Structure formats: structure tokens, C-alpha cells
Amino acid sequence: MSLRSPRSGRASGGALRRHRGLALLFVLPALLLLGALVVYPIGYSVARSLFDASGHRFVGLDNYGTAFTDHATLTAVRNNAIWVAVAPALVTAVGLVFAVLTEKIRWATAFKLLVFMPMAISFLAAGIIFRTVYDADPHRGALNAAAVAVHDTFNDRSTYPGAHPRPGGGLDRAQGGDITAPTSTRVVLLPLVGVQPGALPATARTAQEPAGGDGVSGTVFLDFVPGGGGHPGRLDAGKKGLPGVTVQLRDGGRTVDTTTTAADGTFRFGAAPTATTSVVMPAANFAAPYRGVDWLGPAFITPAIIGAYIWIWAGFAMVIIAGGLANLPRETIEAARIDGAGEWQIFRRITVPQLAPVLGVVFITMVINVMKIFDLVYIIAPGPVQQDAGVLALRLYLVSFGGGNDQGLGSALSVLLLLLVVPVMLLNVRRFRGSRA
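== ABC transporter permease ==
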């Protein structure tokens, strides 16, 4: 049994206080920075949210009431919910697939480099890239260029997009777009205008008079003479026939015969005309060309931006998950293979459960990230649809500095965004503490 003297106890207590004071001295610069860069802005935002736009009149919680009743803000909250529900899960899933692939392919290093490369690009540059990729014009937007190429591979393009008869020229255009010429005669002329300059094929020859004879014959021609002249609706010299136009002979609602115009625009049906016969050029001849999908429109703008986000962050998820894969015990995987388990069974029942802590870290990190997403939405979404694609961080910026000039409401939105992020951050901290324990 040993006894400590009061003097030695006082000495040890003084040493402990000196150590605490020294520790505080070292921590003080970090505390000052934390207070200046984190605590003070949060406190100031909370206080500012209780005042009006000018900052002089105290309004209490009115700004929060406005935030919860404003349509644009509610749209931003809905979009944030979509982001949180979709983007983190997709980023984690794609990163997991890429990480597993890096263990299966021979050129794993090059693959990792390509997938991780978007992380080296700023969000501004990535937004500009995808603004071009999603462009509605197929000649500029890569995605719509691919969509148009696939569509035109399996569907015939219209022969003369935009062509139409002259008003009052004797041809009727139905609501569906079909151009009809009622006829009880054996000869019919079908003059059209509005043919685009590049749409007239090089094989087009000068329009000729219909051959006549038995059945029904006619000519489809461009009712225009280069340089001027001629008479509307007549086969004047210099007018070109329109080859390749599909023409149908109909009797009532029944199609009797179908043919295609020759190089000089002429066509012929063997069936004789009746009182109810009509010659019809279907709307498919003149339909506007397929232009792809309006990716930057209100319907697809949020999924389109989420796609750009996945492109950027999938490399980050892949690297983190690949690190977790490298530390997995190989014995269990080899034992499963020996027992006859397939690769899918190994992936689903062994790899994924063992990677659960790593996947959780990636997922929660992405949740925190997407809750304050701003730059991609601001850059990719065109002005007219920014409200449809809006998120809380973008709404905060627009209200405070982007023309709204209401820092009171903007501060209230920033506080709401903080309150949404803090629980997820606390969950992440608990996970870190649990992993260290």
C-alpha cells in the first residue's frame, strides 16, 4: 500500500493544467478560424433571417413562412428530394460496378484513369460540356445526334419536310397532314411549295405532263421557277418534278393503290377514277425530321443534370470502393468459388455485405454533396427552365443575389438548408466513430 503526499498531488495537478493550457494554445488558431469561417456566418445568417430585405425591420419568422409558401421554393425542395433519392444511390451503384470491373479487366489502370478523369474537371467546365451534349440541335448536341442516327436507322425519313400546297391552290390538307386532290378525271396536277433548298435531290428532272391513258396519272412538282416567272399551279418551263413522293389512290376511306413519283414527278395508277376517288399524298412525305429529345426542357432537365453529376462523381466512388475491395479477405471468396458459387452469387452475398461500411460512407458523402448542389444546375439549366430545375442552393442564390435582392429570405433558405444537412453529417460522424471503435 502506497500513499501519495498532498504535495505530489498538487504537483501533478499543476502539470496537468500546464499541459491543458499548452494544448489550448496550439488549438486556439484552429478555434479562431472555425469561429470566423463557420460559427460566425451561421450565427449571422440565423439573425439575418429574422429581418426584412433591407435588414432594418424585424419580421420574426415571416421569411420562413414565405419560404414554405413560395411556389419556386417548394419546387426546389421537391427537386432536392429527387436528387437525394436518386443521385447518391446511382453514384454508389455505378462506382461499385466500376470498382468490380477494375479487378476483372487487364487494363485496369487505364480504365481507372478514364473514369476518374472527370474529377479533375471543374464543375463549371463540366456544366458547359453537358450543356453542349444536351443541346437540342442534333448538329451540336452529341446525345441528340446519336438519338437521331438511331431513329433514322429504323424509321424512314420524310422526303420533303415542310412542303405544302399553295393556299387556294385547289389542294386540301387534312388535320393529320395528308394532302388530298379530289378527282373524277384521269389527270391530276399536284403543285407544292415550301421545299427546302437542300431537300430537292440531284436526280430531280424537269416536271412533265402526265402520260394520260387508262387509270389515273399525275405530276407532283415544285410550283416555283428559279429566278421568277411562271404561273401558280401550271407546269411551266423550269419547274422541277419531285421524285420519291408516295402517292395513294383512295376511294372513300379505302386505299386502292399506292405508288411513288418518278424523277420528273409523274405517277400513274391502273384503276379507273370514280365519283368518290381522291389522290392523296400522305403526311409522312412532309413530316418534320426527327430532332431528338428536348433534354433541357422542363420534363427532362433534372434527370439530365443528375446524369452529368454521375459522370463526374462515379470516379470518386470507384476509387473509394476499390480501396475497400482491396482489403477484403480473399479466403471467403475463394471458399465460395470452391463450393460452386457463381460470380453473381459471390458479388451479391459476399462482396456487397463485406463492403457495406464503405458503401455507406460513399452514399452518405454523396447525400451531403447533393443536398447543396448548385453549380451544375446553374450552368446546365437554361434560364427559362431554371425554376423547373431549381434546388435550394440555387434558389438561395437567386433570391439573395440573382435579382431578388432579399437577403432576409435568402438567409432563411440557408438556415433551412443547414438544418437539412446537419442530421446527415451527424450520422456520418457516428459512423466514423463506430468504425474506429
